[in-house]
Structures are given as C-alpha cells and as structure tokens.
Amino acid sequence: MTLMPDLPQLVEDVEKDISIADTSTSIPAARSPLSLSLGRFWANIGARISVVVLLLLLLAVIVVPLFLKYGPTDQDLLQSRKPPSADHLLGTDLLGQDVLARLLSGGRISLLVGFATALSAMVIGTVVGVVSGWLKGAADTVLMRTTDLFMAIPAMLVVIVVGGIIGPSLPLLVILLAAFAWPIAARIARSVVLQVRELDYVQAARAAGTKSVTIQVRHLLPAVIPQVTVAGSVMVVGAILSEAGLSYLGLGVVPPQASWGNMLQAAQSFSVISGMPWLWIPPGVAITVTAISVIFIGDGLRDALDPKSSR
Amino acid sequence: MTRYLLIRFATMIFVLWVVTVGLFFLSHSAPGGPIASLVPPDQVGTSGPLIAAKIAEFGLDQPLIVQYGTWVGKVITGDLGTSFQFNVPVLGLLLQRMGPTIQLMGLGLVIGTIVAVALGRFAAARKGTAADYLLGAGALTFLAIPAFFLGMLGIFLFAAKLRWLPSSGMTVPGDGGLWDHIRHLILPVAVLTVLQAATIMRYVRAGLLEELDKDYVRTSIAKGSTVGQSRAKAFRNSLIPLVTILMMSVPSLLSGAVVLEAVFAWPGMGQLTLGAIQFRDYPVVLGFGLLVAVVVVLSNLAADLLLRRVDPRVRLS
C-alpha cells in the first residue's frame, strides 16, 4: 500500500520521457526491437534473479501442496502452536494448522490477487487509454476527467470502508483494487497513443483507409503494451501489499482461508512475536520476497524498454 | 489566478461530493444494517418496540435520499452525527483521536524527509558507485516490506529481545511523563520514517542528478565557482519538485499510520475507525472517510499552490 503513491509519479515519468522507436524507418539490423529489449532485460542481473525467484515461488505454491501431509485448514487442537518439527516443517498455529501448508495456500491467494488485479486494471486501462487517445475531443476529456477523479480518491480508505461494511470477500477485493489501479494504465496508454498516432506508419495506415479499430489493435496496441506492462508490475506489488495490509486489519481475506496478511494478524500478540517466530516470520518474508522480485522485474523492464537508459 | 482557484475549488467540491455519496450509500446497503449491532441478537425477536425506537432515534426510517440530505446538511455545519457506539458527537471523537495520529504522521513526514534528502544527496554525489547502488536497492527493499511486518520486527528486536522500548500503547498507566511518551513513539515513528525515506529518497536523487546535468551548473563551474558551490545551487533547485511529492505522500502516510496503529495499539483515528467498522458504527466510519477525503484533497491543492509559490515559472492552468 505504500507503493500506491508512486504510481502518479510513474505516469508523469512516462508522460515526460516516453520514447517509442519509430518503426517506420527501416532498420538494417537483423534484431527486432523486442529481441533487443529482451536481451537488455536478461543482462540485468537483479531482474534475472527476480524472474527465477518468482517462478520458483509460483511452482512452490502450485506443486508443493500436493505433496504435503496436511491441508491448510486441517485442525488438530492437541498440536496447538508447536515449533517446527519433522512432522510440521514450519510448526503449527493456534488451531494446530500446519504453517507451511497455510503459507503456500496463502501464497496462491496473494499471487492471485496481485496478478488478477494488475491484469484487469491493465486491460481496462489500455482500452480506455487507447480509445481516449485515438478519439481525442469530448470523449477524451470525459474519460480523462474520470481518471483524475479516481486518482484523487484515497483508494486505501475506500477499500477499508467498503471491505469493512459489505464484509470481506476475495472477488470484491480484486474489483476494488483494480478499480483504483486502472486510471494509471489509462493515462499511460493515452499518452503513448497521443505520440504514436502522429507517426508516419499510423498516418499511412489511415491514408490507406484502414479501419479505425484495425489501426488501434494492429498499430497502436503494440506500442502501448510494453509501457503499460511496466506500470502493471507496480500494480502487482501494490495489490499484493494492499491485500496483505487489509487482511492484516481483518478486512481482506479472512480465516479459515489462509493469506499472508491474516497469518500475520493471527500472530499479532506480544507473546507470539517474542516467543513463536515461526508463526509470523515466514509469511512476512514471503510478502517481502515476492514484492521485491516484482519490483526488480518492473525496474528491469523499464530500463530494457527505454533505448536511452543508462545506469 | 482567480479563475484557476475557482476551477480548483469546484473540482474539490465535486470530488468530496462523490466521496460522500459513495460512502453513504455503500454503508447503508450493508447486510444487517446499522440496527443489527444495536440490539443484542437474543432480543431481536422480542424487542420490536426497542428496534423501532432506535430506528426513529437515528432517522433510519427515512428514505436513503432524505437521510443523505440530512447528513450532508449537518456535515456542512460541522455536525457529523452521533456515534452509535459511544453515544457522543462524532466530530469530538475524531478530534480527540486525531492528535495521536497526527503525532505519528507529522514526525514520520518530517524525519523521513530529512533522512531522504540527506541520503538522496549522498547517493547522487556518488552516482554509479557501490554506495549508490546499495542505497537504491535498500530503498526498493524497504518499499517491499509491509509496514506492519517491519513493525513486528521492531517489536521482536527492541521490545522482546533487547527490552529497550515498549511494544504497544501510548503511555504506561501511572507514568505518562514526556519521556514515557517519547519511548512509545520511537518504534512506530521509526517505521514510518523508514517508509517515507525509502519513497522520497529516489526522487531526491533523480531530481538532483537531472539538475546537475543542466547548462547553468556547467556555466557556473566554467565561470570559476567551485564544484561545491555549483552543486549547492543545483541542490536548491532540485528541491522544488519535492514539494509536490511530499504533499502527495500525505495520504499514503495516513494509511501507513492506520496500519501501524493496529500494530502498536496506538490510540489514534485508525484504531477508532477499525473498532467502528466492527460495531457497524456508521457515523464514525463516514466521519473518518470524510475527514480523510478532505485531508487528501487539501494536500493536493497545497501541492499545486506551494509549487507555484516556490517556482514562479509554473503557470496554473
């Protein structure tokens, strides 16, 4: 949630020094801009490690639960708050539930919320932004004032109040988080379109009588997607941290369903913090590692997509 | 200027209106409704008159539109209603709990910004060195750590293991001296400081580097100023955009404070609101929402106006 305020700045950055390769001039080099960018991305050690870490995490939360003896909600009250052992690798919580199983189950939720939020926000934002930038005029004004409005409303507050009043639910959480993330994508998509639409290849397509929709999909979208993806990585982190924070406050994912945030909430008392680190260190570290990986991937993408970038 | 202020003001009112409408209708469409929490579950069957009395007392038998109109009319005169939970005016309740929250936020904002400026300047002066890279990576790492986890780590280290600092509350009952209060402030303020510094530092660094690249710095060196003198000029100019960024960071500091209040049992507005949500104490929740909306809208406005004040080139349009 601490990342959300970074997004307006990100929009400004992109709007300020967006750089789109003018593909209308023929490049003699055999490598496409995409392949060059991927090469630059892969040369970034931090980004490369982060991709591996994130893939390992994904693999762990999907595959490892299949081999665990205990499910995330299997209770055994006689085994309450036991330290790690061969039977329970990360110990058990108050209800005797296996912490490792809950950690992995919670990881599914966190990653799901993070990527579902970012993906829906990116899709909505891209559509709005491309249409807005292409049409210009009144439609543009209305759509952009709407994004201004959404960006001026404190998202966290709305999510706290709505989550607290309607009652916590996972789809609601994703919808609310996405509702406050899409304007960022829309602004970025629009600013890219405003620049690309004047380039020769788009003008040529127009002159040749290509349909408006075709131009938007074939010629504008490819320029928009990379920039929106960079913003998307920040949204993934924002959503994961927001979910954790809200679940920690008891307004996001609630037990018995495990989530990294509500595992930390369950461990909030002083005696647990001081005496039972296995209950709260693993979920906290898991959130942090996931968020760092995505941040570094996003950073790597931004540098890779910017031909002028030099570190 | 006048025209700009008028447009700005109209936008502000519009945003606030949208916020109030959204909050109000959502809170009243909740399952159970406000009455569910006022009457003990075992009496619901037998307390028809009680429920009816309560409904009439809080005006809940009116159509929603009327209720909203009444509420807004009162809000404008500073009457935020009466808390279902404590049976006292919401405004007084919020004001009473505002102090502790402002202490956290204000200290975090000031100390965090000072640290951020110092570290950002340091990193910019050593661009490309290991120290610069470490600071950058450190800032990203702290942005990835949830505030509450950082708070729990602080409690683990400084309250449980070292026993230097208290883990919760604002004072020890029976003590309440200044030093006791400061000791309780240290951990939550430290967490907010770290978060604020990590966010702002990267802007300071980037802003300074951009400024150092400009022609006037080179000209100044060419005309005989020392590198130090020229850098000082660039440094002053690089602080201009920071005004906006600082104002924009106020809402995130507020949500950080709400979460940290839960970690450290700090008796501020966040704790009040979370309690009110559990109790379905709508007037308090709405009052808090409104207050936050006003704070956010005002800090956005302050950002614009301050920027114009420190940089006369900025034209407001």
Summed up:
With 311 residues, chain A is mainly α. Chain A is 70% helix and 0% strand.
How much is the average pLDDT of chain A?
A: 82
What's the total count of β strands of chain A?
A: 0
Termini separation of chain B: 8 Å
Radius of gyration of chain B: 25 Å
Order of helices and strands of chain B: HHHHHHHHHHHHH
Structural summary, described in words:
- The complex is a heterodimer of chains A (311) and B (317).
- By secondary structure, chain A is an all-alpha fold.
- Chain A has helices at residues 6-17, 33-43, 45-63, 99-135, 137-152, 155-166, 170-196, 200-207, 212-248, 260-266, 270-275, 281-305.
- The longest helix of chain A is centred in the middle third of the chain and has 37 residues, at 99-135.
- Chain B has helices at 2-28, 48-57, 64-76, 90-125, 130-144, 147-161, 178-212, 215-222, 227-238, 240-248, 250-264, 269-279, 282-310.
- Chain B starts with a helix and ends in a 7-residue tail after the last helix.
- Chain B is built from 13 helices and no strands.
- By secondary structure, chain B is mostly helical.
- At the A-B interface, helix 1, helix 6, helix 9, helix 11 and helix 12 of A face helix 1, helix 5, helix 6, helix 7 and helix 11 of B.
Which tags fit this structure?
heterodimer, A: 311 residues, mainly alpha, 12 helices, disordered N terminus, B: 317 residues, 13 helices
Any chance you could write out the topology, listing elements then pairs?
The complex is a heterodimer of chains A (311) and B (317).
Chain A: H1 6-17, H2 33-43, H3 45-63, H4 99-135, H5 137-152, H6 155-166, H7 170-196, H8 200-207, H9 212-248, H10 260-266, H11 270-275, H12 281-305
Helix pairs in contact in A: 1-7, 1-9, 2-12, 3-4, 3-12, 4-5, 4-7, 4-9, 4-12, 5-7, 6-7, 7-9, 8-9, 9-10, 9-12, 10-12
Chain B: H1 2-28, H2 48-57, H3 64-76, H4 90-125, H5 130-144, H6 147-161, H7 178-212, H8 215-222, H9 227-238, H10 240-248, H11 250-264, H12 269-279, H13 282-310
Helix pairs in contact in B: 1-13, 4-5, 4-7, 4-11, 4-13, 5-7, 6-7, 6-11, 7-9, 7-10, 7-11, 8-9, 10-13, 12-13
